[in-house]
């Protein structure tokens, strides 16, 4: 599953381009994590994760596409805004906690970048005037 086509229908409603290196990397990482999670816990179809996982993935992609920090996006865990719905945030965190260590052997480059991105603090908000 590639980030390019899958989220095409969401793109028109997004503020950020998911083609930027930072955001596309984050999107690919989340996709890979959901693929691992779904393969181990659900019954994914030939086209990728199951419907419930796809719904969560679409939600995460939409949040990413509308993140007010854009390319300067911090780690969501360090974000003062927390734009996710609480129950969705908890579910995505559960998937990430489970998939994080497994990514190191399956997708090491993305895993390392994810660890580094996970240390990013939110940039200072510019003051008006
Ligand atoms: S939680 Fe914060 S960093 Fe993550 S997508 Fe939402 S606004 Fe952006
Ligand atoms: Zn699933």
UniProtKB/TrEMBL annotation:
Pfam family, one: YgbA_NO
InterPro entries: Uncharacterised_YgbA
Protein name: Nitrous oxide-stimulated promoter
């Amino acid at each position: 599953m590639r980030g390019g086509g899958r989220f095409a229908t969401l793109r028109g409603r997004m503020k950020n381009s998911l083609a930027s290196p930072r955001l596309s990397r984050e999107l690919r990482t989340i996709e890979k994590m959901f693929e691992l999670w779904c393969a181990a816990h659900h019954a994914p179809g030939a086209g990728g994760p199951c419907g419930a996982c796809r719904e969560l993935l679409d939600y995460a992609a939409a949040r990413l596409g509308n993140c007010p920090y854009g390319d300067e996006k911090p780690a969501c865990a360090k974000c003062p805004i927390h734009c996710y719905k609480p129950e969705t945030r908890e579910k995505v965190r559960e998937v990430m906690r489970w998939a994080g260590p497994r990514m190191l052997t399956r997708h090491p480059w993305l895993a390392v970048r994810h660890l580094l991105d996970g240390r990013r603090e939110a940039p200072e908000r510019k003051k008006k005037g």
